[in-house]
């Protein structure tokens, strides 16, 4: 499992970028609503769909580079488990934002 985890993280990264870019090109609107627990946040479409993706990409690449140059892999499963959780959270939030905004428009 240790050698497949970076490939899984990379595939989640690619899926998230594809979802964000697809939403930007096909369903572009001037503003997008991000549903929160008790409020709504109005923002641009780029920030809503690719803002969290950019942040997660930077964090993931930094973690992978840190693990590559570090010889002792004591916390390998914790860091990659968090990375997988982060990407699943990113993809699910993108899908929730897209579904919510498509429901408002139609």
The average pLDDT is 82
- Percent strand equals 5-15%
- Topology, number of strands: 2
Question: What separation lies between the terminal Cα atoms?
Answer: 44 Å
- Identify low-pLDDT runs: none
* Largest sheet: number of strands, sense, barrel closure: 2 strands, antiparallel
Can you characterise this structure?
The chain crosses the membrane at residues 7-28, 40-67, 76-95. Keywords: Membrane, Transmembrane, Transmembrane helix. The structure is a single chain. Helix 1 runs antiparallel to helix 2 (45-69), helix 1 (5-26) packs parallel to helix 3 (76-105) and helix 2 (45-69) packs antiparallel against helix 3 (76-105). This protein has three helices and two strands, in the order αββαα. The termini are far apart. It has a two-stranded antiparallel ribbon. The protein has helices spanning 5-26, 45-69, 76-105; strands at 32-35, 40-43. The protein has 106 residues and is mainly alpha-helical.
Short description:
This protein has 106 residues and is mainly α. The protein has helices at 5-26, 45-69, 76-105, and strands at residues 32-35, 40-43.
SSE blueprint and pairings:
Blueprint: H1 5-26, E1 32-35, E2 40-43, H2 45-69, H3 76-105
Antiparallel strand pairs: 1-2
Helix pairs in contact: 1-2, 1-3, 2-3
Relevant terms:
3 helices, mainly alpha, 106 residues, 73% helix
